[in-house]
Design brief:
The protein has 202 residues and is an alpha+beta fold. The protein contains eight helices and five strands, in the order αααααααββαβββ. The protein folds into three domains: 64 residues, 434 Repressor (Amino-terminal Domain) (Orthogonal Bundle); 70 residues; 44 residues, no CATH class.
């Protein structure tokens, strides 16, 4: 989506409605600074007020996200918008999967660091147990968060039927795995196979 184009479209429709930035902001219960950011292409309207904004500007959500009025080319514009949103999701999923690696590595480093301190620094035995326990808990929280990212970002592809889907967290948690390839049951063909992580739905 072109935020600058959308911003100019919002500004044009606001002026057409005879509203100042302050007046539009008051109707939406937001600050005029937020409206200014939209119109300058620095931010997008929040989804919670998008319908109300479209009502004030007398446009559809599709027109807002396209940054132009849609008439005869409605189907073409809808497909373009769908492709743009799909591309944005894929990019977001790639960034999340990169973040998953960082979280996993950081969690292991924390665990090893706490264990190192507990093993080589002179302290009471109870404090050693506390340090090891705290390190283990922090590491497990990090691993669980990384696993949640892996579960929701992208899809798993069944090696038997090629179906791509988002599994449950429980399925991912208990599945045997080699890196991001997991041995799971496909909800489509109901067969177990080694399923690879992929970014795209098709």
């Amino acid at each position: 989506m072109d935020q600058v184009k959308i911003g100019k479209f919002i500004a044009g429709r606001r002026k057409l409605a005879g509203l100042t930035q302050i007046q539009l902001a008051e109707r939406l219960n937001i600050t005029d600074r937020a409206v200014s950011k939209w119109e300058n292409g620095k931010a997008m309207p929040d989804s919670s007020i998008m319908l109300q904004l479209c009502g004030e500007l007398k446009i559809s959500v599709n027109e807002l996200l396209c940054g132009e009025e849609i008439m005869d080319n409605y189907k073409e514009k809808s497909e373009e918008l769908l492709l743009a949103l799909t591309k944005q999701k894929e990019e977001a999923d790639r960034r999340l999967l990169s973040l998953e690696i960082l979280i996993g590595v950081f969690s292991v480093i924390i665990l090893l660091g706490f264990d190192f301190v507990a093993s080589f620094v002179d302290m009471a035995d109870w404090l050693r147990f506390v340090l090891i326990g705290v390190g283990f808990i922090i590491a497990m929280i990090g691993v669980a968060y990384a696993l949640k990212i892996e579960q929701t970002a992208g899809y798993y592809e069944c090696a038997k039927c090629g179906h791509r889907y988002v599994p449950t967290f429980k399925s991912v948690l208990w599945a045997m795995h080699i890196n991001r390839t997991r041995y799971m049951k496909c909800p489509e063909c109901h067969q177990k196979s080694w399923q690879k992580k992929v970014i795209t739905k098709e």
